[in-house]
Amino acid sequence: MAHQKISPPFSSRRLHEVFFTRNKTIAVCIVTTLMALFGSVAYTKPQSHRDIYKEAYIYGFPMVMNYGIMYAYFVDRNSGQFKAPFNQIYNEARVFTPKDTAVVTPNSDTPYSFVGMDLRAEPLVLTVPQVEKDRYYVIQLIDMYTFNYGYIGTRSTGNEAGNYLVAGPNWKGQTPPGIKKVIHCETQFSLAGYRTQLFGPEDMKNVIKVQSGYKVQPLSQFLKQPPPPAAPAVEFPPFTADGMKTNFPKFLNFVLQFCPPVKEENALRARFAGVGIAANKPFDPDKLSVSDKADEASAVSQGYSEIVKRKDQIGANINGWLVGSILGDRAFFRGDWLLRAAGAMAGIYGNSAAEAVYPMAKSDVSGEPLDGSKHNYKLTFAAGQFPPVNAFWSVTMYDGKTQLLIENPINRYLINSPMVPGMKKGEDGSLTIYIQKDAPSSDKMANWLPAPNGPIYMVMRLYWPKQTKPSILPAGAGTWSPPAIEVAN
C-alpha cells in the first residue's frame, strides 16, 4: 500500500459523503463506499439472509476493492490512474505524491512497478536483473483474494538475476529449464507490485537502470514456442462508486468467476449461492423480496461500524502505535474474513510481516488522537534505538480523512533512514522528527515532517525487520517498540 496503499486504504465517517458528494477521486469513492458496505458480527453460523449478506460483504470486501484498483490500473484507460494493459510491466520512475489516489496510504519510499497478470491462457515469467547488494527490492504477488501468495526479492530470493514462473490455478506443468522457482496463484488474475529502494533524488537514475532489467513474458515466449490459444475476452464491468451502494453483489459475482473455490470455502460459497451470490451470476437488486432488501440494508448499516472497529483493534497499542500483523497468505488468515477485510481497509496491498511491518500512529503519549490543527508534535528516536531492520525504515504522513499523501511546501511526504545522515541530531545522538503543519524554525527544517491541518494518519514502515533482538517481531509482542509521539511546546 501499498501502504503501500496501500497502501486505495480508508477513512470515512459520514455515509452521505460517500454517495452524494461529487468530485471525489476514484480511490476515495472506492474506499468510503466499500467501508459503508462491509461488516460482520461474530462468526456464528448464519441463520438468516441478513447474516449471509453480511458474511458475503465481509468475505468480498478486499476482493471488490482489489477489482476497483485493477479496473483503474489495467482496464480503464481514462481512469487517470491507468498503468498498462494486462501482462505488460509499468515502471514508475518516481515516488508517489498526493496526485496518486487509486491506492490509499501509498508508499513513497520506493518507486513502484506494476504488472496486472492474466494467467488464464498460460503462466508468466518474471525476470529480474542482478541488483547491487546494498539495494533492497521486492516483488509482492497478490491474488484476487488479496492474499500475499508469493515473494521475489532481496529477502526471499536474493539480489541475483533470475527467472521466476507465476502460474494460475489451471497450470499443472513441470518446472521449465531456466526457471529458478515456480510460484502458484489460486486465482486467474493477479497483481505483481514491485518496490525498488531509492536512496535519494540523485539516485533515481540508478533505480531506472534496475527497473529496465525487470522483464515480463508469457511462458511460450520465454521457451520460444508457439503460444497456446488465447483466453476468451473479458467484458469488465465499469467500476463506479455510486453503483456500489446497491450493486456490490454484481461486482463480487463477477470476481468470483476467476477464483476457483478451494476446499476451505466450499460451505461458504454454498451459503452465498442461497442469496444469489455466485460466480458470474447476474444479480438484480430490484428482484429481491421486501424482506431481503431490508436484510441487505441492515447488513450495510451494521457493516460500516464493524469493519472500522475491527481495523482499530488490529494489533497491540504500544506507545500510541497500533502494531500487528494484518496481511499475509491464506494460511495467515485461517478463514478470518473480518481480519482480511480490516487489513485491506488499513492498507490494501501491504506486505506480510516478514517483509515489512507497519506501525500505525493512533494517538499521542497522552492518548489523544493526532490532529495537526490543534498541536505540533515530535517523535524522538533515542541514540541507537532506530527501528531494527535489514533494509530500511520510514515514517510517512497522510491526511487522516482520506489516508492519502498531503500537499506541502517542501514536497516532503516522509522521513526515512537514508535521510538520517543529513538530519540534525541531539547532543546525545538522538534524532527528533518535528510533526506540524507550519514550517518550524530554520534549525529544525531538515527534521520537519509536514502534517495536515486536521486529523493525522501516520505510518511507520520497517522493511525486512530483523528477527534477532531487538526486533519488532512478532508484531505486537516484539522486543523493540516505536517511541511515543509527544505534543511539542
Describe this structure in words.
The chain is α+β, with helices and mostly antiparallel strands and 489 residues long. It has a domain at 356-487: Sandwich (Jelly Rolls), CATH 2.60.120. The protein is built from ten helices and 20 strands. The strands form four sheets. Strands 10, 11, 12, 13, 15, 16 and 19 form a seven-stranded antiparallel beta sheet that branches. Strand 4 (137-143) and strand 5 (148-153) form a beta hairpin. Helix 2 (26-37) runs antiparallel to helix 3. The protein is globular and about 65 Å long.
What are the main properties of this structure?
disordered N terminus, 19% strand, seven-stranded antiparallel beta sheet, five-stranded antiparallel beta sheet, alpha+beta, Jelly Rolls, 489 residues
Instruction: Please identify the structural class as seen in this structure.
Output: alpha+beta
Number of helices: 10
Helix % is: 10-25%
CATH architectural category of the domain at 356-487 = Sandwich
Report the major sheet: 7 strands, antiparallel
Tell me the strand percentage band.
15-25%
β-strand number: 20
Q: Strand-and-helix sequence, N→C?
A: HHHEEEEEEEEHEHHHHEEHHEEEEEEEEE
CATH class designation of the domain at 356-487 = Mainly Beta
Q: Look up the CATH topology of the domain at 356-487.
A: Jelly Rolls
How far from one another are the termini?
Answer: 33 Å
The dominant shape is: globular
Radius of gyration: 22 Å
Uncertain spans: 1-45
Mean pLDDT score, rounded? 88
